[in-house]
């Protein structure tokens, strides 16, 4: 099974400068290749990896600065571009901006990479053209190296090894009859149908205050100035710690859940659409833009997508099956009797069934998680959630009785 191992590098000044140079060359190759693909598409023609790789060899003769980067690293950049265009479309693949893109490049040939352990806390790796680079040995390598990616986050450089750890996904979970539903929210990151609440604060009060002050300072700096670069570096340092905490939380929570459950059921959420801006256009300005902006930040802060990826990755080692279900009516349906109306949810945290003879009451997120688990891979209803809109073909439900009119 393929798995990643990430270590923090301790580069010399010369090696750091070379990493910057190679990353900039890869960025230039990506942007040039993407521009070429878009020009071909506008003329009704196609351009893919094969012709671009052949033209790259010719370009290295005309532009000697391309030779500073290993050939297989540049070829891998074109392969990544080809995959991005196939997955997202030629005109939706993103440019690699110098200001927004984190420098990175990949060595795809694992047989050209040598790793040695120097002691309890240090190791070194031999990478093409970079030579021996030292890194913190924070965890065992645990497998055969397939590739290595060098990247920069903030002021630090890291190396990530893709290794084959020799394990296989179990055919059967250790507890095959167990299952759980998970409701993701903005108040609590994840609530399970078992009644477990998984959440934590990713940024401290002090960091929030310092970050806001840095934002104010950034607004007063001049573009391309040294003070602006220092301010951005300080902001990235704070956000880097927040990102690391979010990643640790998602990974640890995912492992705890998949170890105990053979089936994990999630809502099929379109997070990208849910976090789209409500600003609109000049001709048609959006409504409640500030409220929508706050909701978007809350969703992104909880790391819904990252948690889903962590569950998928951890499930490979336990044989857990990850299932997505339609989110329709999960927040308004009673998990005890199945009665549906938007009056059932009295507040963000309180659910109380309004059906006669039921009166079931519990935490609203736990109730939603139970509905998600009960869906078990099947849609809850034929239309969307009451809070998100209805299908034009769906008959309305009476708010008083919860039933469709005769």
From TrEMBL:
UniProt cross-references to NCBIfam families, sorted A to Z: guided_TnpB (NF040570)
Pfam hit, one: Cas12f1-like_TNB
Renumbered residue ranges of the record's region Disordered: 383-406
UniProt record similarity statement: In the C-terminal section; belongs to the transposase 35 family.
Residues covered by the Transposase putative helix-turn-helix domain: 1-43
Organism for this UniProt entry: Streptomyces musisoli
Domain Cas12f1-like TNB: 304-372
Protein's UniProt name: Transposase
Domain Probable transposase IS891/IS1136/IS1341 per the UniProt entry, residue ranges: 169-276
Key words of the record: DNA recombination, DNA-binding, Metal-binding, Transposition, Zinc
InterPro entries named in the record: Cas12f1-like_TNB, Transposase, Transposase_put_HTH
């Amino acid at each position: 099974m393929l798995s990643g191992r990430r270590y923090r590098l301790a580069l010399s000044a010369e090696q750091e400068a070379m990493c910057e140079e190679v990353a900039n060359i890869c960025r230039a190759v990506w942007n040039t290749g993407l521009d070429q693909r878009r020009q071909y598409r506008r003329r009704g023609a196609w351009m893919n990896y094969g012709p671009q790789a052949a033209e790259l060899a010719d370009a290295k003769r005309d532009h000697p600065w391309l030779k500073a980067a290993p050939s297989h690293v540049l070829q891998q950049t074109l392969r990544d571009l080809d995959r991005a265009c196939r997955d997202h479309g030629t005109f939706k693949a993103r440019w690699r901006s110098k200001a927004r893109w984190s420098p990175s490049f990949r060595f795809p040939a694992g047989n050209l990479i040598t790793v040695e352990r120097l002691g309890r806390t240090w190791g070194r790796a031999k990478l093409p053209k970079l030579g021996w680079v030292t890194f913190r040995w924070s965890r065992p390598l645990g497998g055969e190296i397939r590739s290595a990616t060098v990247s920069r986050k903030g002021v630090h450089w890291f190396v990530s090894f893709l290794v084959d750890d020799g394990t296989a996904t179990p055919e059967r979970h250790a507890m095959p009859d167990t299952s759980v539903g998970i409701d993701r929210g903005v108040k609590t990151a994840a609530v399970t149908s078992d009644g477990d609440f998984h959440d934590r604060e990713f940024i401290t009060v002090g960091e929030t205050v310092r970050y806001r002050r840095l934002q104010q300072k950034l607004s007063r700096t001049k573009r391309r100035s040294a003070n602006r670069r220092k301010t951005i570096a300080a902001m990235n340092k704070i956000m880097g710690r927040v990102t690391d905490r979010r990643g640790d939380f998602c990974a640890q929570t995912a492992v705890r859940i998949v170890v105990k459950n053979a089936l994990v059921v999630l809502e099929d959420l379109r997070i990208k659409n849910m976090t789209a801006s409500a600003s609109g256009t000049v001709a048609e300005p959006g409504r409640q833009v500030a409220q929508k902006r706050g909701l978007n930040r809350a969703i992104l802060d909880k790391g819904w997508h990252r948690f889903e990826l962590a569950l998928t990755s951890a499930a490979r080692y336990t044989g857990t099956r990850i299932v997505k279900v339609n989110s329709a009516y999960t927040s308004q349906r009673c998990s005890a009797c199945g009665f549906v109306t938007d009056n059932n949810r009295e507040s963000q945290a309180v659910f109380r069934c309004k059906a006669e003879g039921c009166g079931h009451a519990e935490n609203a997120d736990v109730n939603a998680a139970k509905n998600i688990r009960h869906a078990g891979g099947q849609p809850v209803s034929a239309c969307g959630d009451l809070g998100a809109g209805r299908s034009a073909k769906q008959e309305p439900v009476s708010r008083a009785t919860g039933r469709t009119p005769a």
